[in-house]
Amino acid sequence: MTESKEIETVIKTGRLRKEYENVVALKALDLAIPEGEICALIGPNGAGKSTFMKILSTVIRPDFGSASVLGYNPETQPLEVRRRIGFMPDFFSLYENVTSEDFLAYFGLACGMAPSKIGARVTELLEMIALTEKRNTLISGLSRGMKQRLVFAKTLVHDPPVLLLDEPLSGLDPKARMEMREVLRNFKKLGKTIIISSHILTELSDFCSYVVIIEKGVLRASGGVEEILARIRGAREVSIEVTGSADKAKQIIAAAPGVALRACEGMTVNFALSQERAVLAEINASLVRAGIGVLSIREQQGDIEDIYKKISAEEVQ
After folding, report:
1. Planar angle of CA 215, 216, 221, nearest 5 degrees
2. 278 CB-near residues (< 8 Å, 6+ apart)
3. CA 309 → CA 57, 172, 286, 303, distances in Å?
4. Domains observed in the chain
5. Largest CA distance in the chain
6. Coil, strand, or helix at residue 212?
7. Which residue, of 74, 149, 156, 221, has the fewest CB within 10 Å?
8. Listing from the earlier edge strand, what are the strands of the sheet with 268-273?
């Protein structure tokens, strides 16, 4: 029998606090993010998201509390942390008078890569971000979206196991955003842990498996997307489209355990289900035995945007 691998906590904080001129950016943040997750870090402007990333990436120090990345303390072991993370800030400056190729090669050397391996890595990254044709172009000649992709490639140059990405989809056209989402999905398959901050919640829902919500420096929720959805939504919202007698179908569905009928439209019966999903199979079988055809059973699917709307509706003190 093969033993299952224990999931490691990659990011951990304890009572983490940071203030800027009497403004509390983070207030006693206790958080743990497991290995291999793509974590959506969400909250309004000024919530403390960028501060959290900057502390993890050794850019700033906390005023109180602790943080660790793969067991290393960003405050006391910054070099160990930097070897293991790739940080892409929301706002960045570039060396405008160097080429894309030289820019990536420079950061490869800065990250301690062997010079003999840098050329192949740069070529690989330029291909990944679709900038191969721009390898000898000065950065000043790149568009905003191209610069964004180049900074993303710089973040990956030393192949770190942890990525901290602050608004990486900002400024990208739809095609580039789709390509980056696919790259991030592939990184998850490789076991990398990714924390990504963005205001485009619908896009985060497409590929994030974990969510952390911060408001006014306070942790409001954290956990797997499905886990939090199950916790906040209570009853499942279900629609069943039938043929035959809608009234008879309503009677059968209403008699099932945990069902509360909603407004029905034509041949579609809408209801809330507070029991396990297995009840839907029993309802389907009962309808078929009664001679009622079932055309479809649709369960309303929640996403990260639903989680945020529900949790942010409660006022933070």
Report:
1. 30
2. none
3. 29, 25, 36, 10
4. 9-230 (3.40.50.300), 234-302 (3.30.70.100)
5. 75
6. strand
7. 221
8. 259-261, 268-273, 236-243, 293-299
**φ and ψ at residue 3, rounded to 5 degrees:** -75, 135
Residue with the two structure tokens 């990944």: 128
DSSP state of 140: G
What distance in Å separates the CA atoms of residue 63 and residue 52, rounded to the nearest whole number? Answer: 12
Q: How confident is the model over 59-71, as pLDDT tens digits?
A: 999 999 999 999 9
- The string of pLDDT tens digits covering residues 108-133 is 999 889 999 999 999 999 999 889 99
**What gap in Å lies between CA 192 and CA 113, rounded to an integer?**
19
Structure tokens at 129: 């971000």
Of 97, 82, 74, whose CA–CA distance to 161 is shortest? Answer: 82
Residue 258 identity? G
CB count, 10 Å around CB of 254?
Answer: 12
Tens of pLDDT, residue by residue over 162-191, are 999 998 887 788 888 888 888 888 888 888
**Amino acid at the residue 136:** N
